[in-house]
Predict the structure.
Amino acid sequence: MTIRTKRLENKEKVGTVLDREILRKVKERSAREGRTISDIIQDALLKYNDTDSTKSELRKSAVTRFCSKPFNLNMREMNELLSEDIYEL
């Protein structure tokens, strides 16, 4: 999904403040990959923008439901269920 553009058409210069360690890592990676920092940041922003916030919210609510105790099982009951042979008829 890498979009490599060298021309400045349809581009806008932006200024931002980044953590030094993050910027150091991005610079190292850009040198290793032979890409510009701008290309790496642009790819990251495109991925971020493509992330469906609905899916993210669904995942968060699923984790909340999974990690809560809707059935209020005690440890004995949990161990009993976990030691049960699921292949036994």
Q: What stands out?
A: The chain has one domain: 20-83.
